[in-house]
Structures
1.
Amino acid sequence: MSTTVLQRRPLLGRLRGGFLAHGWLFRTSLVLLLGFVVVALLAPWLAPQDPTLGDFATTMAGPSAAHLLGTDQGGHDTFSALLVGARSSLLGPLGVVVFSSVAGIAVGLFSGWRGGWADAVIGRVLDILFAFPSLLLAILAVALFGKGLGAPVLAMAIAYMPYTARLVRGLTAQEKARPYVAAYLVQGHAPLYVAVRRLLPSLGPTVLAQSTVNFGYALLDLAALSFLGLGVQPPTPDWGAMINQAQAAVLQGQPLSAVVPAVAVVLVVVAFNVVGEQLGDRLARRDAR
Amino acid sequence: MTLLSVEGLTVELPGSARPVLDTVHLRVAAGEVVGLVGESGSGKSVTARSALGLLPARAHVTGRVLVEGKDLVGADAARLREVRTSVASMVFQDPRAGINPVRRIGDFLAEPLRLVKGWSRRQAEARALELLAAVGLPDPPRHLRQYPHQLSGGMLQRVMIAGALAGEPKLLLCDEPTTALDVSTQAEILALLGALQRERGLGMLLITHDIELAAATCDRVYVMYAGRIVEEASAADLFGSPRHPYTRGLLGSTPPLTGPMERLHPVPGAPMSLAESAPGCAFAARCAFAEPGRCDQAPPGLLPLPAAAVPSTAAADPTGSADRRAACFRVAELPAVVTSEVAP
Amino acid sequence: MTALLEVSGLRKAYGATTAVDGVSFTLPPGGALGLVGESGSGKTTTARMLVGLEQPDSGSITVLGRPLAARVRGRAARLARAKAVQIVFQDPYLSLDARLTIGATLDAVLRLHGLGDRAARAARVRELLGQVGLGEREAAALPRHLSGGQRQRAAIARALAVEPAVLVLDEAVSALDVSVQAQVLNVLADIRRDAGIGLVFVSHDFAVVRYVCDEALVLLRGRPVEHRPMAELLAAPEHPYTRLLLDSVPHPGWDPASIAQRRRQLAQ
């Protein structure tokens, strides 16, 4: 008798089955995100200096004991601005995700459950919303309602809503076709009860995965908006606004005050993507069982 | 000539409590129709796939799978390709799952011929027409240009059979070829498979969960349970005097269409999943005849029936019981007469 | 005595295709009718119309002398309809809510139908599960930890919890393993005997229909072709399609070629 161990999955399989499933990337990302949240919550106590106060004696300084990550051209402490800036930088996307998820779930559930012409009409409206780049919509909102965090967040929530709505609509239609939903209806449960209390919770984890990915993108979009000077207004610290204000410093060969918030944005966006994707993968594996 | 000979094949998957296949022995000769009967998780499909060298990834495999005398376990890609293109081919359960819905029937049939055999488009299409005619489709030139959704399930299964015949195989593996089809379509597909098998002298392995179907269409039948072959017999013997308690249970589970109607005597419990294992006979937990201390110690081997256990009618027929084997410690002690009424 | 279930002139079309056309039958109290046919025969559509999951284009369904409304509005009407007819679906893997244990699923049905007392509900859940041969362990389990046969029994218990006048079984045993199918068939036979409930058994398999039903209605492309007591139908099938279906069941000495030929003749 011969003995053979069949190994049909080369590198990619081992990569996915190996170090990704091990999850160090996932865990690192999760820890990173939790870290940022803690920082945002405790920022006023953690920050060594008030980032809104400029110290005109030391502008565009390099790292020192007094200013761990140096200062920008206005003499604001970059490290403190980074910590306090985490608040608005995370709060904005949180608003976007909460609003867009709630609205998207409502629209998607209605559309997928109802089907027929209502579904078709909603589908077309979502198509139109999809056609607008979220940033453009946000700039429009700023033009109408003025600068700040409120208008862009609302506009972006509307722009992100179709993603969640599409997902929920598809899952709802798929789930509604399953006999357990029919069984609930035959038992005499009200359709609204079955849709909201029985069907919706089973979609929860998938929607969470989508929202997590959305959070990263919303953060990127809002940072871009602040960078353009349309979002959070100085002196309130914000990562996007910090990069904007650091432009002069970059030109003068002191890029640190721009690099630090940029790195923070990239880290958080990547971490949210990793966590979201992994949540999605885990769900897919759970469903396959 | 033995086309397929599976010898002591054991397949283990990481993370399952018992082997997917456990020392499976099975052979199919040219011109022979062999049935492989089992329920979900019995390993019948894995056995059939092994004949194409298609074993699960990461599986630990021991034993041999000889196709025309050459071992496929550990064979190189060239040998596997040779077997898959010109010695053995397979017909699957769901014809819709096995065909690209956006390609025409003609492409499905002609493409492998052009890619594998290097035929010209014209040659391959002529051959595709021949194949469609061979499986009894009414209008081959039209079907060649049709898409899968334009054909019924039964017609599509004929197309799949045509595809399986494209390489002029000697061994046809049919994995539940009619389970996804209507009952009257089932007869049609089996009539076609039977005719093709006789015309071409094919060796055929018919995998099914339906023991009545196997008994009605096969020469010889293997019954599988939890990765092991538990009984091997000619179709007539299996149906007339099943020996293994599991085989009896299967036959007793199907309500009769004629004759007196008695209460069914189902096998208790459910087929053993891959997450379960038993030190002794895998069927012992569900078996009415199981004897503690004997059946639950070590698995019984698949052995020729002792003379005492061969029913006298079958023994009188010199061809009938030559290949009767069963894997049961108590096979010689079980009552010989079998109806759905059998009780310990 | 009034009929348990009276269906007359049921018709349903989807666009240009007529799925069900002129299906009528009467089910006496405690009776069991088999709806037999292949795919496209309209048997599943008929079953879904009986429980209100599809609206018939025309025709009427009457349970215990009271017509079933095409559309129900309001809690009382919904519960009344649920009490009239319940259904068990084919696929035991998708017909139970994956997030609830079997016990919780049954409990929710009982609560919906007005059994307020928690202890009384628990006792009834035990009783219902006992009726289908399941116990405490299964009650505490999520569907994914149960086998197909156990799930299908749970689905039967869930339907019985409503205490319907009629139970529709839509290919309820065809997705099960052979050895498990027999267990569920025996459960159905017992329910028929003990609960005095009317059964409509939808299937393509004459052998299992014979085991459970007294009469059968054979459907071909949405139309009834033969409706007779089971024994008569099996002994002397009148319609060629009924004969074809009967002969299609494999048996020793089976000749698939002649069946295939007759099927082609019938199709013309």
2.
Amino acid sequence: MAGVIDGLSWLLLLIGGGFVLIGGIGTLRLPNFYTRMHAASLTDSMATLLILSGIMLQAGWSLATIKLFAILVFLLLTGPTASYALANAALLSGMKPEETGRTVGDKASAS
Amino acid sequence: MYYGVAFAIFVTMGLAMVRALLGPTVYDRVLAVNTFGTKTALLLAVIAFLYGRQDFLDLALAYALINFIGVLAVLAFFQNRRTDKSNTHEE
Amino acid sequence: MIVVSGVFLLTLLAIIAVAIVRTENLFVAVMLTSIFSLLMAANFFILDAADVALTEAAVGAGVTTVIFLSALSLTAERERSLTRERHLAIFVVIVTALVLIYATFDKPRLGDPQAPVHLHVAPWYLEKTPELIGIPNVVTAVLGSFRGYDTLGEVFVVFTACIGVLFLLGSKRDPESAVSESLPGSAGLSHHLIPKVVSRLLVPFIVLFGLYVQFHGEYGPGGGFQAGAIVASGIILYALIEGEAAALAAVPRAALMGMVVGGAMLYGLVGLAGLALGGNFLDYSVLLSDPLAGQQLGILLIEAGVGVTVCGALLLIFHAFAARELA
């Protein structure tokens, strides 16, 4: 049973680390603010969930698990809120989600 | 295993920092700071486990909190300056 | 592992420092300073200094960023461009840096186990704390009891800084506070529904967490300074969301002044109580019949005094800047 928990936690940590890296690369390489916003906020929430769950499995039933759960709830509540507030502020200040023109399809599609 | 995750988080912190330095608009930089803060909180949780010092988890919670308040402060500040349009695209 | 991550973080720190100096947009500089604080705090954390890391994060990345932003809203956003070269300044900086670097040659290497501080001072503290004070966190024992004088000085420095800011910025805006309701800046972020709802949920938990850090300072990382900064951050969050007038209605200026003065006075009174009961100034062992319990009570009281003063001072400074902005 301990081996299953260890293996599961290993897997969760691995995938969480992968999401973190994907988010970082996305933040750097994507062309537009709104696309970078996608990369950063989505991978943030997913990576938080996976990594903290992985660590919680390792900790077992202890005070540390409760603290980790508190951190998880807090990050899951405030991460999307901060992203929403940021995107809203950008939109209200006039930054438009523009077409970069790199797509192969027709330009007549609405942005 | 924790080393691998810590390494991934370090690399992402570096990438987010590059975005903070490069970002043409202000909002890119704020995004980078927000990402940086959240990754720091995750890094602290992972390293606290690496060291076996589980009372350091309080720090991760405090960091997550501080990051949130910082981003909202930037946005509240920016809203007050929204009347001045030239502030949104600079450099 | 520690060396590699330490070197990595310090490299990032150097890059950020260069960027802060080179940018001419002050808003960008403030954002980069926030990252600088977080990096420094992560560095302290890796070096196993948890109390310092918590203080650096709470004060540096949180409250200082907010205060810088409030100050920025009173001035221009771009740095004034240089009109003449500054050769003399560069010369003075280089000479001072070289003198300082030369002075560090006599210092023992960082972390050297043969250094005098690790051979004499640190083992003494580690030995004597369980028998003289009895709390697990040695940092709080050193801060609160063995070096209590220094901490008394720190509290009074925070108090003086707060008074200094109030002298400079003044607080005679109350008759015009009725006018401020109509200005757009005073509404905060209140028309954004989602941040408002989430923040209202969070503010009581943040204050509760601050109290937890305050009282947990004897067993883990924590203590008065960190707790004061965290509670102040919670109330600043409320002020950002609901507007500064609402925050002043919740925690009025008189209460904040009372907190600042009361905290410092509490610290002094604990010291005088030690004198009155027959010991030295700031000797907590005489406070109760059992010296160990007396020490713990003394540390509890002075940490409370420190936390209250720091919270009141940070909030007063924030309100001084924010109130000025609306005028």
